[in-house]
Design a protein that fits this description.
about 280 residues; alpha+beta; Jelly Rolls; Arc Repressor Mutant, subunit A; 2 domains; 8-stranded antiparallel beta sheet
């Protein structure tokens, strides 16, 4: 349908969708989407909307106010906003492709990406996200709800692409030492020993608080969670490839007792080490 909003030009359109109960319970789902051409009369400001916004700037430039900060979004940038928080955006002139989505683990994806990028993300040379947005808009014109699973897949593809872009950005940032990679290498070499947060922070020469924040942002794990994950991965390999006792494996991978190892293993793998060892894959 034509979008009758101030500053939105005649060749723009917006589409609206009421998701099924299945989509709400299982998928990422669309609430609305559109292709806008806007002039300098366009300004959107709101306190709350129950959605997350992905808006691709196909051409032009605008200003985003979000979380008490001001950002500039320009051609080939993607704007990602949690619309549950007050926000505003305005432009002199731009063309945008946008979707409001929700459901599944939208909040978790948003928080991970926002911690890495903020709310404006340069797509660099990636064409996947603009192409998927156009695909979604074309599919959205079909009123058959059977496409909801496919739309969910497209949304997840875009969010995954952003995670890959953020990893590429941080891992190739040569302007500073990569403290996360250095600490991961340290953990890989020393997981069998006692590792404290202070040890890792000291190794990369920053404060424990700052290190924890950076590590979580880059990996999605806290330092403790990452160390535990590495120890459990090695324990699983030993359970499957050796005849070592459970107690021997516990100490070999860095746990301080057999009981702590068994409890931790069951919490993460949903089975005991013994049952894991005896399960065929």
């Amino acid at each position: 349908m034509y979008a009758d909003e101030k500053g939105v030009l005649d060749n723009s359109y917006a589409l609206f969708h009421t998701p099924s109960n299945l989509a709400k319970s299982m998928f990422f789902y669309l609430q609305c989407a559109g292709h806008f051409y806007c002039d300098n009369n366009y300004c959107l400001e709101r306190d709350y909307h129950d959605s997350y916004l992905l808006m691709y700037i196909k051409e032009g430039e605008g200003t985003i106010r979000y979380n008490n900060k001001i950002f500039t979004a320009k051609t080939n940038d993607l704007v990602l906003i949690n619309c549950h928080i007050p926000h505003m955006y305005t432009t002199e002139s731009w063309e945008t492709l946008w979707i409001h989505f929700n459901g599944n683990v939208s909040e978790e994806y948003f928080q991970l990406l926002h911690n890495r990028f903020g709310c404006v993300i340069s797509l660099q040379d990636s064409k996947l996200i603009p192409d998927l947005l156009m695909t979604i808009l074309e599919s959205f014109k079909n009123t058959d709800i059977s496409y909801e699973a496919l739309i969910s897949c497209h949304i997840q593809q875009m969010l995954t692409e952003l995670i890959m872009l953020s990893s590429h950005f941080t891992l190739t940032d040569t302007a500073k030492p990569n403290i996360v990679l250095e600490s991961i290498n340290y953990i890989q070499d020393n997981y069998m020993n006692k590792i404290l947060l202070e040890d890792l922070a000291k190794y990369v020469c920053i404060s424990p608080f700052y290190f924890s924040r950076i590590f979580k942002s880059e990996t999605g794990y806290s330092p403790y969670e990452y160390i535990t994950m590495i120890r459990l991965n090695h324990a699983k390999m030993l359970l499957k490839t050796t005849n070592l006792l459970i107690k021997e494996i516990a100490f070999k991978v860095g746990f301080n007792s057999e009981s702590n190892f068994v409890t931790c293993f069951k919490e993460h793998a949903n089975v005991t080490p013994s049952k894991f060892r005896n399960t065929s894959f």
